[in-house]
Write a structure and sequence with these properties.
It comes from Methylotenera oryzisoli. By secondary structure, the protein is of the alpha/beta class. The protein has one domain: 3-Layer(aba) Sandwich (Rossmann fold), CATH 3.40.50. Helices cover 37% and strands 22% of the residues. The protein is built from 14 helices and 16 strands. The strands form three sheets. Strands 2, 3, 4, 5, 10, 14, 15 and 16 form an eight-stranded mixed β-sheet that branches. Strands 1, 6, 7, 8 and 9 form a five-stranded antiparallel β-sheet that branches. α4 crosses α5 and α9 packs across α11. It is globular.
Length: 387
């Protein structure tokens, strides 16, 4: 990985500590660890994992930029959709994995402007470090009457009413790597895991009988094919469905329908790592220092929701969703002649909407319970039929 920036000595020391813990786990597990377990440790080990350590993750000084970091436009458009659901449910907002806290800040300000503030803005955040980042951002950026509405949760509530939001949450849920070799045996399926001999390296082993094998057999994978499967993501959707009493779950992430996800030409999967704005495909290096993600299979997300009592309310590109939610009208409130204000808005909108940037790669899916009207975010260009 000579093309990547070299971590400083402190970062290398923390990475080495985490690597030793993973080596121990591999030893305890008979010399082999599933990639899902490796990914979970690399991202979430307290104090050492990528999301649990102290390095800056988001924005220009971090490893990647999320939509809320680009511009308040994202939250301002999203607020129109959130407000629609809050009017019907008279409920609250719950954000999953709130990152730097930027979406929470901008969304509360936008909802205040729409006169549709929820009584509570809950944040479910597993990282103690990120909770602290969020607290500081919210205290610094919001007036007291808004900041006091924000409450951190340790678990999903029961019978939640309102809107559950997740921006780039599902892509960070650990995945199993499944490889189907070229074989005359129709049942031949392997799981690609991690072993250690001086360094971490890949090792395939036959997938044993059990729930994972049963799930993978439903995918009808081509030969010589590597892909990701995420029972944990489906479990998360089931958990959200169980917790939702009345309202909507809105998830924004990069991914595809199953037909695209498991296309024969996508034979190396979608696993991607991010380190200081470099994207690459080597998750076994810089352990704990880089983000590890996989694209989302939105067909499975929709199925998991429907199997757990939710209705599919819509599925479309991020660009289509934001335009349906009025992002262009929000921009039009600033005069193009006021270049100091308009130029940054136009540049941000380009990133959020352009097919060459985030506009098409990122999708929005909404699942609902007991909602009486269609969601405005999917009024045009709904692609639910492709899932």
């Amino acid at each position: 990985m000579s093309s990547l920036p070299i971590p400083n000595a402190d970062a290398q020391a923390l990475s080495q500590q985490l690597a030793l813990l993973i080596q121990d786990k591999i030893s305890q597990n008979g010399g082999w660890l599933s990639f899902a377990d490796y990914m979970h440790m690399a991202l979430y080990t307290p104090g050492l994992g990528y999301y649990s350590g102290g390095a800056k993750k988001f924005g220009m000084g971090g490893d990647f930029v999320t939509a809320p970091e680009i511009s308040p436009l994202f939250a301002q458009a999203m607020a129109n959709q959130v407000a629609q659901v809050l009017v019907e449910t008279q409920g609250d907002v719950l954000e999953l994995g709130a990152g730097s806290g930027r979406l929470a800040v901008d969304l509360l300000l936008a909802l205040q402007a729409l006169n549709q503030l929820p009584a509570h803005y809950f944040i479910l955040e597993v990282s103690t470090y990120l909770r602290q980042v969020q607290r500081e951002s919210i205290q610094k950026s919001l007036p007291a009457n808004l900041a006091e509405r924000v409450i951190w949760l340790d678990a999903l509530p029961d019978n939640f009413v309102g809107v559950m939001l997740g921006n780039e949450v599902l892509d960070a849920v650990p995945v199993h790597l499944i490889y189907k070799p070229t074989s005359t045996d129709a049942q031949a399926l392997c799981e690609r895991g991690v072993t250690f001999n001086g360094e971490f390296y890949w090792q395939d082993k036959p997938l044993p009988a059990g729930k994972l094998l049963d799930l993978v057999r439903t995918y009808e994978l081509p030969d010589d094919y590597l892909t990701e499967v995420s029972p944990a993501a489906l479990g998360l959707v089931a958990g959200l469905a169980s917790a939702l009493g009345h309202g909507a779950i809105i998830l924004v992430d990069y991914g595809f329908s199953a037909r695209e996800y498991y296309h024969p030409q996508r034979n190396l999967g979608t696993l991607m790592c991010h380190y200081q704005h470099y994207a690459h495909v080597e998750p076994l290096v810089y352990v704990g220092l880089q983000d590890i993600t996989a694209h989302v299979d939105f067909s499975r997300v929709a199925n998991a929701g429907e199997h757990n009592g939710l209705a599919l309310m819509g599925f479309c590109s991020q660009a289509q969703f934001l335009m349906n939610c009025g992002i262009l009208e929000i921009m039009s409130q600033v005069s193009p002649h006021d270049m100091a204000r308009y130029a940054p808005l136009a540049a941000a909108a380009q990133k959020l909407l352009s097919p060459a940037e985030m506009g098409d790669l990122f999708k929005v899916i909404a699942l609902g319970k007991r909602l009486g009207q269609p969601l405005i975010g999917f009024a045009a260009g709904d692609k639910s039929n492709t899932l």
